[in-house]
Amino acid sequence: MPQESLQQQNSFFTSPSKRGLKGLVSINKEASITATEESFNDHELAQRKAEEAASRRYQATEWLRQMDHVAFASLSPQPSEEDFSLSLRNGLILCNVLNKVNPGSVPKVVEKPALAIQSAEGAAHSAIQYFENMRNFLEAVKDMQLLTFEASDLEKGGSSNKVVDCILCLKGFYEWKLSGGVGVWRYGGTVRITSFPKKSPSSIVGSESADESLDELDSSQYEQLLEFLHLSEDFLIEETRTANALAFLFDHFGLRLLQAYLRETNGIEDLPLNAMVIDTLLSKVVKDFSSLLVTQGTQLGLFLKKILKGDIGCLSKREFIEAISLYLNQRSSLASNDFSKFCICGGKRDSIRQNANYSSKYAEVINIQQKQLEGMKYFFEETKLEVQHMHSEWEQELSRLVHHIKSLEVASSSYHKVLEENRLLYNQVQDLKGAIRVYCRVRPFLPGQSNVTSTVDYIGENGDMMVVNPLKHGKDSRRVFSFNKVFGTSVTQEQIYADTQPLIRSVLDGYNVCIFAYGQTGSGKTYTMSGPDLTTEETWGVNYRALRDLFHISKEREDSIKYEVFVQMIEIYNEQVRDLLVIDGSNRRYPLINYLS
Ligand SMILES: Nc1ncnc2c1ncn2[C@@H]1O[C@H](COP(=O)(O)OP(=O)(O)OP(=O)(O)O)[C@@H](O)[C@H]1O
């Protein structure tokens, strides 16, 4: 459908690649519109075109009325085509509006409201009187490379559509400028390419509503079209850079803002950062970024006007470009103007554009580096604080440890003192008990000796023992012997060792101790000193129990004292000393030492 095709063409602001393609697409669609139009009812089509033209005319009129008080007074909100042309024919409204859009474009405007007689009869006189206005307006518009029209288009039989196109184009340019002049601009839904050939046929560039169909394109227009498409490619490259820079700026700024929200918004940590929350935050960021662009554009405009000393009201093109260069240099030196290169639209002199690009790129690099530096500085400060904090914590911990160690030292020295005292007392007790102690153990009868009568008559608690000699009579038959202690036949190995054990500890405190068994053959010396069964701990004799305690105590004291234990086991038999630890059966004579641990 033709209407749909037009809507599709009018409803985009797409990526550069899509826009690059659009030049071709729009022409093809216009051709298809022309072909399809024939199948439509002529009347219906004409009516629709008239409605569309009227709608665009009202749109242009509304804007003119907003921009200029003369237009407000002389133009009705919805003028007929004739009234519209008549009101604009003297060029006064157009010049006034153009000077507002681009101050100084028409330096001299013939302004005699009294003579602005709005009547069909006075049109010729008015056209002559204000011919200068119209000429100046058309030249200025052409200089600005906007859509233009012929003066005759405002006369009877002329095409007011071209005039409407020119005004809407001017409107689009004005709005684009107000929003900061970034990138490309559009009017009536059509992207305006800001790059033109030296002799640009501005009347066809981007003019969707032009009445001409593809069929009507003559060869020169076709060449112009090809030139336009070629230039579109150049523009495409330039615009891709612009788009990349904008994408970078947005990413940088957007992510910074997002980061700031996440850091500074209270209670955000309670929110689950799911896709919906991220989307919401990002849409807020996008909104902020958009408003920043608009604000920045407005401020830029104000700043430029200030630099240009707006009260002068007019400057030559060269002066204006010089002022922009000056402004860019100032902004570059401040290293904070990411948008500077977009302030100059395409189509200007190459040298100016290159300077602006270099300046802008330089500013961009400096800006990025400065931001990185700021980030590093911030990070450095944070790390420094962290290190200082850790340092003070370590110092506190260290002083606590030093204090603790000192108190331990004090406690340790006291402990050693007490321990020493304890040892002294202990060994004094052992001395008091007697340096030489003699114990007597009575061996039970061996199996098979049950009929024999024991010679031990009585064993006293104080170490006395009475022995009966059946071969003697009277007083001589009984004799009493005194020992430190007498152990009866039922005493266990453990009980025997209990009286010996304290002496083992004295050995480790540096006292000399000697334990030996004495008695006739078969009296139980081996039984008492070694024990009948080494595999059973219960039956261990004095030797093994003493060694076990020695190793146990030396283990307990290993942190403070290191003991070396040597063992030797000897037997004195028939007045000969023999080594009992020799295992080859040679019974080598003393001294021979075996090292145990
Ligand atoms: N208190 C005891 N209870 C039970 N049996 C014992 C006791 N003392 C010794 N005997 C037993 O008496 C026997 C002789 O003991 P043992 O060999 O110890 O004597 P001895 O003095 O070492 O002899 P020798 O001097 O000839 O070596 C062994 O059979 C031993 O088991």
UniProtKB/TrEMBL annotation:
ATP-binding found in the keyword field: yes
Gene3D superfamilies, per the entry: Calponin-like domain (1.10.418.10), Kinesin motor domain (3.40.850.10)
Record PROSITE patterns: CH (PS50021), KINESIN_MOTOR_2 (PS50067)
GO cellular component term of the entry, any: microtubule cytoskeleton
CDD domains given in the database record: CH_AtKIN14-like (cd21203)
Sites where the protein binds ATP: G519, Q520, T521, G522, S523, G524, K525, T526
Kinesin motor domain mapped to chain residues: 435-597
This protein's name: Uncharacterized protein
Species: Clitoria ternatea (Butterfly pea)
